[in-house]
Design goal:
Number of helices: 15
Distance between the termini: 52 Å
Helix content: over 70%
Mean pLDDT: 95
Oligomer: single chain
Structural class: mainly alpha
Radius of gyration: 21 Å
Amino acid sequence: MGFYDLSKEERQQLVHRITADIEADLQEGSTQHLHRYFSDEDTYIRKSGYQALGKIYKAEESLRSEILKTLKSLMTSDNFSIRQTTVNAAGEIGMYNFEIVKRFFDTGLFDEHHAVRNAVIGSVKKMGAKNPEPTLKWAKGYLHHQDKEIRREVCHGIELRGRTHPQDILPLLEELQNDTTARVRNTLIHVLGQIAYKKGCLETVVAHLNHWENTALVSEAIDEIVDVHERYKSFAALTQEEAIAYISQNFKNGA
């Protein structure tokens, strides 16, 4: 039976048991329960596990050293789900203490399994939203990595911060404007669209794009921004017509 096949009360009881089991593991120097929960086939069981570990780290100072030692050990598992969940657990800690878990993202970014690399992207998203300064500094270090997938993943990872604070990530995105790899370029255009439709964001994005040198890419980005205002019209601050009018008046090359 899956996590969401349970009633709300049963889910709460299960989360409480997972938390208690993981804390017992840490106190006993064991990974018995951690291995079970971190490798569970149910995504939400694994999520409950890594969220529980993050809460224990924050609440129990005496267990922090043991938690970091345990995560380091779990990161070497042959089971990709365990490595994936370990990265996600590190992301929970990184939302308020990035430096202590940075090594897990440096490792996970190059993992052979896409699920682990995706966990890095997800962690960067949530850390960037809650703890942007060190997270974005870390991301900046990979913007020009020789591996195109690394560049693409980092571009995707910083998107969430940009949805509320586009000014924080636009300088990083600008560094990718001349990337010749299609997957990186397409991700960059996608992210520019995603950070432009919330209240006050279009103005910031358009003002920044006015100074980019790659006019061909900027033109594609403007098309994407206009299209996003229709695709996400239920969530956009402006209608597509209003967005077009604003761009026409404020983008130096017109809409």
